[in-house]
């Protein structure tokens, strides 16, 4: 886009800036959610190793967490 195009789109600069900031905030929130779910998986595995959770309960909760991770991953990729 040339100089003329930039001049014509100048009034939209604040809108583009707000959209960019919103995108960055959403990206950061998704990354934090992924990190939180990974921490939950580590804690769940620790519970399995220490015997505070049964294998069946571990499998059920692990599936739930992995499903959530997949949903977030689809949101990040999509």
Count every beta strand, where a strand is a DSSP E run of 2 or more residues: 0
Provide the low-confidence segments as ranges: none
The H/E string reads HHH
Measured between the Cα atoms of the first and last residue, the distance is 27 Å
Mind explaining what this structure looks like?
This protein has 78 residues and is mainly alpha-helical. The chain has one domain. The protein contains three helices and no strands. Helix 2 runs antiparallel to helix 3. The longest helix has 38 residues, at 13-50. It starts with a helix and ends with a helix. The mean pLDDT is 90.
Please give the structural blueprint.
Blueprint: H1 3-9, H2 13-50, H3 55-77
Helix pairs in contact: 2-3
Short description:
The chain has three helices and no strands. The chain is mainly α and 78 residues long.
What brief labels describe this structure?
78 residues; 87% helix; 0% strand
